[in-house]
Specification:
Helix content is about 35%, strand content about 15%. The protein is an alpha/beta fold.
């Protein structure tokens, strides 16, 4: 989590550039302070219906945001572009850039919201319920062996003469990894780093091992692209196909179910899941902690 900016008084006019933040603000009784949200802020459906939209998470209309004179803009390091954050700050706006990479950090962001907005203690009880759910899930999952899993977040549907067909997944430095670990999974690509270019990532050049970065190299290595050979080698007992950011569907599930070299396919453990449970850090973690652990109960 990145420290929030100093504000003299609790913000009354807020712009959210993060769908999970928008939903969490409503769940904490703060939805009435939102004066603008992104096109992707769709929950709660009735709550966001009448709130002005100011573009997408990757292309917000910064001039429109500045013209609204918000007390605070809430962004996310992963979802929003640094140049947009910089433009808003240059316009004199207070911008809080969040970046939770674990379930613990996601709850810390919620607690920080209660302090920032002076939320009544009754709303803090909502977060305490999440704290108890997290502790309970950890305790239950500690009693059984973690289930090896594969969870792609994107895919290249066709092979070409230049590269093999690939799936994009995530390593241990991500929120989704931590969440699924808490829920009883063991990520088969926890230690896999993304390499550049694509041919190196798919091991057609440059060999294996960790990526050696040069000074100033800020390329993101958390989302490797992997081939079917690597997936089979990991022998996942469970495969999760989320609905976002790539919208995996029944055709994708049926295709993987045909790959009998995969234990998950042989045992019918290829599941379509709501992607927002996995990638929206905030109050939605409640659904994730409820829905995901049963999918890892393979024993």
């Amino acid at each position: 989590m990145i420290a929030r900016p100093l504000v003299a008084t609790p913000p009354l006019r807020v712009v959210s550039l993060v769908p999970s933040v928008t939903e969490s603000l409503f769940d904490l009784g703060l939805g009435g302070r939102l004066i603008a949200v992104t096109d992707f802020c769709v929950h709660p459906a009735e709550g966001v219906l009448g709130i002005p939209k100011i573009g997408g998470t990757k292309n917000p209309r910064c001039d429109e945001i500045a013209a609204l004179h918000p007390d605070l803009v809430i962004a996310n390091q992963e979802e929003n572009r640094p140049q947009d954050v910089a433009k808003l700050q240059e316009a004199g706006l207070a911008v809080w850039v969040t970046f939770p990479r674990t379930v613990r950090e996601a709850l810390d962001v919620l607690w920080e919201m209660t302090r920032l907005f002076h939320v009544p203690s009754t709303m803090g009880q909502r977060i305490m319920t999440l704290e108890h759910a997290l502790d309970w899930t950890r305790a239950v999952e500690a009693e059984r062996e973690p289930a090896p899993f594969f969870c792609p977040i994107w895919r290249e549907p066709h092979a070409s003469q230049d590269h093999a067909r690939w799936w994009m997944t995530f390593n241990s430095e991500t929120y989704i990894h931590d969440l699924l670990t808490v829920c009883g999974g063991r990520n088969i690509f926890a230690d896999r780093e993304r390499r550049y270019p694509l041919s190196a990532d798919l091991r057609r050049e440059g060999g294996g091992g960790k990526l050696v970065k040069s000074a100033g190299d800020e390329r993101d290595t958390r989302y490797p692209r992997v081939t079917l050979v690597e997936i089979v080698a990991g022998q996942p007992e469970v495969i999760l196909l989320p609905s976002e950011p790539y919208s995996f569907d029944e055709a994708d599930r049926e295709e993987l179910m045909q790959l009998t070299d995969l234990p998950a396919a042989r045992n019918g453990r290829v599941h379509l899941v709501d992607g927002s449970w996995l990638t929206w850090p905030g109050t939605r973690v409640a659904r994730a902690l409820q829905e995901m652990p049963p999918l890892f109960a393979v024993a």
